[in-house]
């Protein structure tokens, strides 16, 4: 079991649906991340929140909308997705932002998203 | 040139073998190094992390960093079928950078 919890584990949605992915960590970490991972590829950074503020947005389409309600929670709101957005969406956290070079990244087990 | 280079394999070894997984990097700003194991349909699991050059050991795993050569390695001793997974190296600077992953199969 990981200390980063993601729900749901699986999600199937149509292109007109609106859904949300949720992530929670109780390690007191100050940075939280969303990554997208396609099969046989490394995780690809989408968003970084440092101290509950969005610090990095890697040119992600607006159909993905992140939200950080508090230091333990991270959401990813999905709307009007395309079939090519089907992937494993990983949430992660670290004690401090990566520029501090002093804390590793801890991943959840992901939400496997299928867009039909 | 990618920031982090990792041989994708696949790598297939008999049970009990010593496995060596490697990554090279080009950015001198990388100071913190991590190895992850990822089983199919799961998230990456943190195995080892280190800041320093030299070796760090944890059970059957040894992480080695050579900053002068910009080269990191993960050694797995007495490999087990349960070690069959994809292994990702990662490094941090302004964000985390990942290798492409090496697929390892340990044959009983």
Short description:
The complex is a heterodimer of chains A (116) and B (108). With 116 residues, chain A is mostly beta strands.
Secondary-structure blueprint of this entry?
The complex is a heterodimer of chains A (about 120) and B (about 110).
Chain A: E1 4-7, E2 10-13, E3 18-25, E4 31-37, E5 44-50, E6 53-57, E7 64-70, E8 73-79, E9 87-94, E10 106-107, E11 111-115
Parallel strand pairs in A: 2-11
Antiparallel strand pairs in A: 1-3, 3-8, 4-5, 4-9, 5-6, 7-8, 9-10, 9-11
Chain B: E1 4-6, E2 11-14, E3 19-25, E4 32-38, E5 45-50, E6 54-58, E7 61-66, E8 71-76, E9 85-92, E10 96-98, E11 102-107
Parallel strand pairs in B: 2-11
Antiparallel strand pairs in B: 1-3, 3-8, 4-5, 4-9, 6-7, 7-8, 9-10, 9-11
Give structural attributes.
heterodimer, A: 116 residues, mainly beta, B: 108 residues, five-stranded antiparallel beta sheet
């Amino acid at each position: 079991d990981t200390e980063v919890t993601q729900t749901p584990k699986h999600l199937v949605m149509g292109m007109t649906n609106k859904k949300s992915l949720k992530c929670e960590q109780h390690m007191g970490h100050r940075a939280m991340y969303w990554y997208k991972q396609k099969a046989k590829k490394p995780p690809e950074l989408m968003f970084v929140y440092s101290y509950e503020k969005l610090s990095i947005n890697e040119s992600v389409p607006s159909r993905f909308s992140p939200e950080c309600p508090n230091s333990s929670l991270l959401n990813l709101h999905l709307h009007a997705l395309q079939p090519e957005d089907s992937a494993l969406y990983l949430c992660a956290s670290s004690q401090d932002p990566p520029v501090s070079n002093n804390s590793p990244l801890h991943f959840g087990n992901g939400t496997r998203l299928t867009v039909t | 040139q990618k920031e982090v280079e990792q041989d994708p394999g696949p790598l297939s070894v008999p049970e009990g073998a010593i496995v060596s997984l490697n990554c090279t990097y080009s950015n001198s700003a990388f100071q913190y190094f991590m190895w992850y194991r990822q089983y199919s349909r799961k998230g990456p699991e943190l195995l080892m992390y280190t800041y320093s050059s030299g070796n760090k050991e944890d059970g059957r795993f040894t992480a080695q960093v050579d900053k002068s050569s910009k080269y990191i390695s993960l050694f797995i001793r007495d490999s087990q079928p349960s070690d069959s997974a994809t292994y990702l190296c990662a490094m941090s600077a302004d964000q985390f950078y990942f290798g492409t992953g090496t697929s390892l199969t340990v044959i009983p």
